[in-house]
Design brief:
Layout: E1 2-9, H1 26-38, E2 45-46, E3 55-64, H2 74-81, E4 86-94, E5 106-114, E6 126-127, H3 134-145, E7 167-175, E8 178-185, H4 192-204, H5 210-219, E9 234-240
Parallel strand pairs: 3-9, 5-6
Antiparallel strand pairs: 1-3, 1-4, 2-3, 5-8, 5-9, 7-8
Helix pairs in contact: 3-4, 3-5
């Protein structure tokens, strides 16, 4: 039987999601906890990788169990064993061929910025004290929603077959003393969102105009785009699956 497990985590202490040699990762901690509770080796597959320091409001993983294994109270047991910065939220039975990674039809992220020093946002939001034009940054969102090739915003030397991504929605909003960037797409490239935010900030500061922003995307040249903003402000927010994957 296959299950989808929804988890949340603060990524500050981890070298990203994926298991690595000689580095603490969220996936390794989760695998170890599941293996301990279920008394068998469990290897999870996540909906996608998050980099070092990136957080998840909702990450989905799948794993398989023999039919006779019961999962009642599994989230309760996991939360007693997992460290404070990882929580198990919900477990659901799915079709035996459903993949947390490949069955997803949409992924959404949030990037948080704040402009005044706030100790409660340290390592959970990016302090950016320069004034920005949110209207201009939202105009740049309209451009990315019409774009498909994001090679200029991808990490170089990445092993992907295509740089094509379909952006379903992108917008900036002001939230109390914070600026929040929301973006959803069918897929994202490595480093894409942090580079996108860094380039949009150039628009917000008036350092480039919208024509230049579009030209950067068209160039497919990462060196022309803005810097990669810090990982602390980035959150995997939601993953959408077809309803028929659930049983």
């Amino acid at each position: 039987m296959r299950y989808f497990l929804e988890i949340s985590y603060d990524g500050t202490a981890y070298h990203g999601w994926q298991v690595q040699n000689n580095a603490a990762t969220v996936q390794q901690v989760l695998n170890d906890a599941l293996s301990t509770i279920l008394r068998q080796e469990i290897s999870t597959i996540g909906s996608g990788r998050t980099d070092t320091g990136v957080h998840a409001l909702n990450q989905v993983v799948h794993f398989d169990l023999p039919a006779e294994v019961q999962v009642q109270n599994l989230c309760y047991k996991l939360n007693r064993l997992l460290p404070w910065d990882i929580s198990a939220n919900e477990i659901r039975r799915v079709q035996d061929d459903a993949s947390a990674r490949f069955a997803a039809v949409s992924r959404s992220y949030l990037y948080r910025m704040h402009q005044r020093k706030n100790p409660f946002l340290e390592k959970r939001s990016y302090q950016y004290s320069f004034p920005v034009d949110l209207e201009a940054m939202n105009a740049s969102c309209e451009i990315v929603k019409q774009w498909m090739d994001f090679e200029s915003l991808s990490k170089v030397q990445t092993e992907v077959k295509t740089f094509q991504c379909e952006i379903f929605d992108a917008k900036w909003e002001e939230y109390n003393d914070e600026f929040h960037f929301h973006v959803s797409a069918n897929r994202f490239l490595r480093g894409m969102i942090r580079a996108m935010v860094g380039t949009m900030l150039l628009v917000g500061e008036g350092k480039i105009n919208l024509d230049t922003f579009a030209a950067i995307l068209e160039s497919r040249d990462r060196t022309r785009a803005g810097r990669s903003v810090p990982a602390c402000g980035l959150y995997l927010k939601d993953i959408i699956y077809p309803k028929d994957v659930y049983i």
